[in-house]
Amino acid sequence: MFDWKQHAPSIVPRQGARTALERPFEARFLGGLTARAPDRVEGRPLEAFREAAEPVIPAIWRCLRRFGVRPDELDDALQTVLVGLFRNWERLSSFSPEALRSYACCASVGVARDVGRSRSRTTRRFEPLSLQEDLQLEAADDDPETRAQQREALTILEAVLKRMPDELRDIFVLHVIEQLSKRELASHLGIPEGTAASRIRRAREEFARALSEVEQPSKGTSP
């Protein structure tokens, strides 16, 4: 049985990739806002938001990617999440760093779905991750064999997520991979805790089912 928690590493944009994460912080989200002063936007201080939001950007990026947002859509999607955080900053400014990360990850669900709906119906619903295209392994091991195993594990994980219904995939990513609690899911997604618990259970079952489909061809059959 594939142990994703042990073998599937986190993903981040590779060095040199042209993504929103490389540009100055303001450039990632100010396009959706009107700046009246260098240090204030819509009357809110920018520096405080920058300090709080920058650490959660990698988690937002991972969620968007695993929710099916394609590389060419990431800049706009990430900006949309950041703009949403900033517009609600009067309330969110009191959140702890971990609570803000949880909120941002859940906010990424709606943004990713909006991106998917606006995408042409003739394109693929989900484009598998390509490490060569725009990703690298986080805290990657220098050992070539270990690197190869990590890449294979990530490929399997993404193939499994691709086979899951969107709602269950999102719950699996948020709860199992990003480690959001049942209470956080209920609060940020606006659902009862009982519903969150039920979706977590179904998501785990669906992951196991999809994983068996992915692993079966590689096992082959004996003559």
Q: What does this protein structure show overall?
A:
The chain has twelve helices and five strands. With 223 residues, it is mainly alpha-helical. The longest helix is centred in the C-terminal third of the chain and has 27 residues, at 193-219. It has one domain (4-219). The two termini are 23 Å apart. The chain has helices spanning 4-7, 25-29, 46-53, 57-66, 74-87, 89-92, 97-118, 131-134, 144-163, 166-177, 182-189, 193-219, and strands at 11-13, 35-37, 40-41, 44-45, 135-137. Helix 7 packs across helix 11 (182-189) and helix 11 (182-189) crosses helix 12. The strands form two sheets. Strands 2-3-4 form a three-stranded antiparallel sheet. Strands 1-5 form a two-stranded antiparallel ribbon.
What structural keywords apply?
single chain, about 220 residues, three-stranded antiparallel β-sheet, 12 helices, about 5% strand
Characterize the quaternary organization of these chains.
Answer: single chain
Determine the structural class based on helices, strands and strand pairing. mainly alpha
Radius of gyration of CA atoms, rounded to a whole number: 18 Å
Gross morphology: globular
Show unreliable segments.
4-9, 12-21, 34-39, 129-135
Order of helices and strands: HEHEEEHHHHHHEHHHH
The percent range for strand residues is: 5-15%
- Major β-sheet, in short? 3 strands, antiparallel
**Total discrete domains:** 1
**Strand order in the sheet with the most strands:** 2-3-4
Let me know the average pLDDT. Answer: 76
| Residue share in helix | 55-70%
Helices, by number, come to 12
